[in-house]
Amino acid sequence: MKLLCSQSDLSTNLSLVSRAVPSRPNHPVLANILLQADAETNQVSLTAFDLSLGIRTSFSAEVWQGGAIALPAKLLVDITSRLPEGEITLDDEASVASTGEGLIVTLTPKSGCYQLRAMSAEDFPELPIIEDAEPIHLTAAALIEGLRGSLFATSADETKQVLTGVHLSVKQDTLEFGATDGHRLAVVETTNESPLGGSGELEVTVPSKALRELERMLAHHAADDAIALYLDQGQVIFEWQNQRLTSRTLEGQYPAYRQLIPRQFERQITVDRKQFLSTLERIAVLADQKNNIVKLTIDHASQELTLSCEAQEMGSGRESMPAEISGEDIEIAFNVKYLMEGLKALPSSEIQMHINQNLTPVIFTPLGGLKMTYLAMPVQLRS
Amino acid sequence: MKLLCSQSDLSTNLSLVSRAVPSRPNHPVLANILLQADAETNQVSLTAFDLSLGIRTSFSAEVWQGGAIALPAKLLVDITSRLPEGEITLDDEASVASTGEGLIVTLTPKSGCYQLRAMSAEDFPELPIIEDAEPIHLTAAALIEGLRGSLFATSADETKQVLTGVHLSVKQDTLEFGATDGHRLAVVETTNESPLGGSGELEVTVPSKALRELERMLAHHAADDAIALYLDQGQVIFEWQNQRLTSRTLEGQYPAYRQLIPRQFERQITVDRKQFLSTLERIAVLADQKNNIVKLTIDHASQELTLSCEAQEMGSGRESMPAEISGEDIEIAFNVKYLMEGLKALPSSEIQMHINQNLTPVIFTPLGGLKMTYLAMPVQLRS
Lengths: 383, 383
What we know:
Chain A is α+β, with helices and mostly antiparallel strands.
């Protein structure tokens, strides 16, 4: 293998794939990035894989001699990212014979020479493929919206297994993202641009770690870029342009969350999202001192929503804001963290709260635009 | 006490002084910020003090009733910084009588009301003062230069006592900053703009924590702002405009570092500082894998400086750069961290290395401008 490429192409692509290199690999080869160079197409592909999450990217280079080799990820990323802009050659030829101690790759920037111990490409595990599957097509924008509105509500507790992922449901015309940690629930419905054939619905739960990487990789893509999504029960693959992300799926039955969402409500409140959120952030300073509980007082007569918190040892706070209120007065309390996280993820400038009683599920929806539903459970108000 | 001020004045000044609030206070009152309001001058001053470092600032406000009170630092800073721009009233009147449980301060922004438990101003310790001392006058620029060129070389090891501070020596026309952790030494000489009278020289060692806060506070000041410096053996005070920083000094004899600096050298190398530093950063990736040692090869014939590292298990690297070299060829090795930190702090685009033998102290100086000396000890080169 021998090739010439630009420092920026190599460094950018290395830093993308290196996110899938495990910090504590089970096998030494997993601490490497697989480099494959094709002399016919003049394409170089890089792959990292922790046996659950896999990322592959490719870019153009001048490939003098094709081949494949597994390169130490951390050293290569750290050195390449610190090199100045310019051309770099990568070569594993000369040194094999001379050292007799195994593979060495030589990295030659303009003014120096780095030799790194490498491993055989044959030791590197194959990325999973899904055969005979028809992809679902999504725009980058729809995928980003779905991830942004659901990922935050997954559980961070690894023992909760299926709840650490986002549940994707492919229906006739829609792709639905659902996430819950047992305390709150977020659901986003986006458009599936390739209506399903006779195969019915598909459902799969994808680890949030893989989806966070996907969100990061898509952040720099144009909103209407097409993303192909391949699903089966064990694997999911996202593919676009020169990049591919694969992930195993999570096993286990995902909760039937739709039945948790009430259909009728006794009270409805429309309020400015940013004002609600910034007020909560101030009240949270006091709530942090106690049990994280904030009280909402909904006053129909004055058409005002009041947030308050009493942290007896430290002090108390209270702020009011205008709201459009239908239904009777009520006092209701929430964990301030669940309220803030939901409000941050809701995509509209005004939001609606739909309330029945002070201990039944409360639904938050954006006003117009994206179809998102956020459910938070109120808590007992202790005085 | 009752006053009206702007959110931005209150928040900016609170965040400045809060740096001196201890994270684990020995006494409850130290977790507070002392607020003093003067109805005659319409000035509000804020003070925080951890019994070693003290910071005081003041700003203009509409003081309706003067007074002093100690306010809970964390709550006040966190709430005030999250409030929108606008007017705020602070008031400790009404609530004292009504609660009967001690002091409460009421913070009233435009759309809400916060009540925080406070403490009596009488419990708050007095900031130290230095009586009968003539101040030394410095510009902000000179002080920042001195701190920037010395603070990085102090020891982070609290058991090293006097080495955790910067040693300030006031001489007839100069103020010298010296710092060493036992492995390297940084010395900066700046101009003392108020020549001493008959009192001779003054020396004092100031904790680096206090000087880092000073550096941060001065970062937004004009280069020619005048800073007054009061010194005695137990305390040091920096004072400018509406701000003051006090610190206890460190006890113990500071090493006589001047005698460590050689006066004559057998070799001299002039090199571009940024190129030297960025090359070191790449070689450091390999050095990190082994013992942090980088080898410098100085070649008179080719007028080249070569940096290299062999990390046998991982690989090796080598880069060369042009240099102006006088004296014979030599190989010399350093801890890469000490070399990088010194090069970062040197203020010129080109620097000079002054070398005798491969195990004697090496001196780094900037070319032109500021008078800074950096001394690093070479290490044994193991092959």
